Amino acid sequence: GIQTVRKLVDDGYIGDIVAANCAMICHGHETWHPDPEFYYKRAGGPMMDMGPYYVTALVQLIGEAKGVIGMTKKTFSERIITSEPHYGEKIDVDIDTHLTGSIAFANGAVAQICTTFDVHYAPGAQCRFELYGTKGTICVPDPNTFGGPVLVYRPEDQVSGQAIDPGLMAHNAPQYYTGYKEVPLLFDYNENSRALGLSDMCKALRTGRDFRANYQQQHHVLEILTSFEKSSREGRYIPLKTHYTRTAPMQNNPMHGILDD
Prior knowledge:
single chain, Dihydrodipicolinate Reductase, domain 2, two-stranded antiparallel ribbon, globular, alpha+beta
């Protein structure tokens, strides 16, 4: 799904990227995870847990980031586990569990991101990822998965109606996507392909080409992830020291199991 979005972006389908808005909203993992304590200790939290999926997708789609500003908080000082085998045990929360902020990109785009373990939210709606361009908008699929849907909205898709302030219109949840068109996935491996990056690295080592999930990407993403809490703690904008050049998009080889020629 993300590779399909990248092709649409690279082909200029929504013009120049203006901004992005993404969120991972849930009330923590102690209701289902068999051993959830580490999520609330140093190096845990929603940004370090789920942020890698979202921020990696952002830099893949937009490119190098240059700075971060964030505001973070800890809402609950302790959590009670309701999953087995630690049902009823308490967890002391040592880290911030609601992190929000903005990322400034080198090309001028700005992304807002929120990750939280503090909010009650319907499970099927906990991911929101939208990419805004000068010629349209793309609803990006959950970067924690490999499929879709990929939804695109351009000016010509606008549904005709009474010319009034959109904020005064009555809305039901499905109407937010009225006029969006679903784009078929253009690449293979839309199942739970957790080892795809490793397979790509192995193919790269065998053929001598660069691999996609390289250290430069991980270093850049990690600095972004850790800068939200630092920005909030220090009360300032954090310029990034790392640099990033987007790696090559995936190829669409017609033979399943063969990443490229």
